[in-house]
UniProtKB/TrEMBL annotation:
This is Molybdopterin-guanine dinucleotide biosynthesis protein B. One of its GO terms (biological process) is Mo-molybdopterin cofactor biosynthetic process. It comes from Microbaculum marinum. InterPro entries: MGD_biosynthesis_adapter, MobB_dom, P-loop_NTPase. The gene is mobB. GO terms for molecular function: GTP binding. PANTHER family: MOLYBDOPTERIN-GUANINE DINUCLEOTIDE BIOSYNTHESIS ADAPTER PROTEIN (PTHR40072:SF1), MOLYBDOPTERIN-GUANINE DINUCLEOTIDE BIOSYNTHESIS ADAPTER PROTEIN-RELATED (PTHR40072). It comes from the Bacteria. Residues 8-140 form the Molybdopterin-guanine dinucleotide biosynthesis protein B (MobB) domain.
Amino acid sequence: MSTPPPLFGVTGWKNSGKTTLVTRLITEFTRRGYRVNSVKHAHHAFDIDVPGTDSFRHREAGASEVAVVSGARWALMHELRDDDEPAMADIVGRLSPADLVLVEGYKRENHPKIECRREATMRDRPLSASDLMIVAVAADFEAETGGLPRFALDDIAAIADFIAAQLALPAPARQTADAAPQTA
């Protein structure tokens, strides 16, 4: 049994910038040479295939899992039917090996997180007030953080450095050309 990869979450209220931050962090960590997986929690039913496609028809016919495989990618869809939503750990355990897993959402899970805040959408109280696993705040304004480190929401390199330090990530096994150290 392999050791699970380190997890770091991005959380926040609706329209706080979570998806934008996660996608930019994935790009940054990948540029640095890390293999990154991601998990996104959705609060609603969703489809990743289109009505009328073969995979949709298989799922609608009652298949519990449908794998779609091509030379470019594969996807696995699992219908819960009347089963409970799986725990995040169960989903992470199904992922391929990675250096880091970035998690979007999952406010109530017990992993380190950064809270996103946008001034335009700040209607609710900060999540960090009641979640000890929030270790920093990324905001587009001078947000009060209760002593937590604060980053500009668009300072992706600094946020990535913070996450790498928090998780004590080792140097990536593979270096990309633009992430390799410069020599004189």
